User: Which sequence fits this backbone?
């Protein structure tokens, strides 16, 4: 951890130390409840028979999905970083496997998974087009992805007095999309069948 952010062994910023899933702030709790409810709806629509979660972080969401999908195969991947692997130890399920790796070149077969997800991940990766291509290669039916909606995200950061020197950009965010530009990116890999905007994110379900 350095300067309020978590950093992988490769020196890549993997996130910040603010626990949005466990926040006691009423406003954050409402936002996250709406975010997770929307995510659950799209996951139910995808109805995956297996799932690959790219950038699973500490395992909070992928663990919930593994429990929800019961005996179906679920794999979560992320970088090597102490707090991430500590979270994996706390979020275990019989059908859930974690692997340490980068997202650029996924060591999985074509169509090995029914669904590939990247939740609050693509803003962090150096080459999001390539990462999405790899996810689409590994998934047979659907992609489920979300990113912060820009410029709204940075405006909200500045409104709360955060990251002024970076014009509101959260540390580790390398890529920035409006709703329209994010749809454009994913449309190159399949048909965007659902577009949701839980404040302040953009969330898409893509049929391959």
Assistant:
């Amino acid at each position: 951890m350095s300067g309020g952010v978590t950093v992988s062994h490769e020196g890549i910023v993997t996130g910040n130390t603010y626990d949005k899933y466990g926040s006691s702030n009423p406003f954050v709790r409402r936002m996250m409840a709406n975010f997770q409810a929307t995510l659950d709806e799209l996951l139910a629509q995808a109805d995956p028979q297996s799932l690959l979660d790219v950038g699973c972080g500490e395992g909070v969401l992928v663990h919930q999905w593994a429990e929800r999908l019961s005996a179906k195969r679920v794999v979560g991947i992320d970088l090597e970083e102490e707090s991430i692997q500590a979270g994996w130890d706390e979020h275990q399920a019989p059908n859930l496997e974690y692997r340490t790796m980068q997202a650029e070149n996924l060591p999985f077969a074509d169509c090995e998974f029914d669904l590939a997800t990247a939740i609050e991940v693509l803003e962090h990766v150096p080459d999001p087009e390539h990462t999405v291509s790899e996810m689409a290669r590994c998934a047979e039916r659907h992609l489920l992805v979300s990113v912060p909606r820009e410029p709204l995200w940075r405006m909200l950061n500045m409104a709360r007095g955060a990251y002024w020197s970076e014009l509101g950009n959260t540390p580790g965010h390398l890529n920035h999309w409006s709703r329209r530009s994010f749809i454009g990116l994913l449309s190159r890999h399949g048909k965007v069948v659902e577009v949701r905007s839980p404040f302040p994110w953009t969330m898409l379900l893509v049929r391959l």
Summary: Residues 59 and 90 are 8 Å apart (CA to CA). The mean pLDDT is 91. The longest strand covers residues 139-148. The helical segments are 26-46, 60-69, 82-90, 128-138, 152-159, 179-187.
